[in-house]
């Protein structure tokens, strides 16, 4: 893919991924075929900051985990009053990283 | 979903161990639990949908099924998960299999489908309202 398109994608989506993943994403995007560009652009990525707000407000009910697609963990949090409150606090610090990991998993389907 | 089999198994075993430790600590005495760990109840005074699960699990352990349902029906799935998943995981580990990991993925996908998700959300909200009127 053209370097200009790739750089534009990286600039507008950098916050959705872990910083150490950016060079790999760039490298892979440069290597893949141009026909995948439309699909890559339309992948619905979740904003880590939105996840954090949801986690602060609805973490006890597992809504943050449901939102990013971790349904199993979400059910676990919901059934245990947010993991007896402890899991809720742990997720305030973990949810942004978990969201970025989820975004990477979604993108990876098209990168390899 | 947790990406690898071993991470999911370690996570599930840790969660179940914590659940069993909590339950056995309060077995037979769950009505008098003083420790307030529910954020929603601590901040708003309102119960959350899962408030009463320890008491329901305690009642189930003593064979009082109807009482458990009346306290909080969520105690039943919690007990089922806490009983079945460690046994399933240990069987998987002994046979070097990953059937629990695959089943977890399938169930997660099913729960995420729109129809089932909305039905379950409605049930949880209904349970929450019921909990509120019970005054937990």
Verbal overview:
The complex is a heterodimer of chains A (112) and B (136). Chain A has one domain. In chain A, 73% of the residues lie in helices and 0% in strands. Chain A contains 8 helices and no strands. The longest helix of chain A is centred in the C-terminal third of the chain and has 26 residues, at 86-111. Chain A is elongated, with a radius of gyration of 16 Å. The model of chain A has no long low-confidence stretch (mean pLDDT 90). Chain B contains 7 helices and no strands. Chain B is mostly helical. Chain B has one domain (5-134). Chains A and B meet through helix 6, helix 7 and helix 8 of A and helix 1, helix 2, helix 5 and helix 6 of B.
Which key features would you list for this structure?
heterodimer; A: 112 residues; mainly alpha; B: 136 residues; 7 helices; 0% strand; globular
Q: Could you tell me the radius of gyration of chain B in angstroms? A: 16 Å
How many strands in all of chain A? 0
* Tally of DSSP helical segments of chain A: 8
Can you write the helix and strand succession of chain A as a string? HHHHHHHH
In a few lines, what is going on in this structure?
The complex is a heterodimer of chains A (about 110) and B (about 140). With about 110 residues, chain A is mostly helical. Helix content of chain A is about 75%, strand content about 0%.
Explain the layout of strands and helices.
The complex is a heterodimer of chains A (112) and B (136).
Chain A: H1 3-13, H2 22-31, H3 37-41, H4 48-58, H5 63-68, H6 71-79, H7 81-84, H8 86-111
Helix pairs in contact in A: 1-2, 4-8
Chain B: H1 5-25, H2 39-44, H3 53-61, H4 65-71, H5 75-94, H6 99-112, H7 114-134
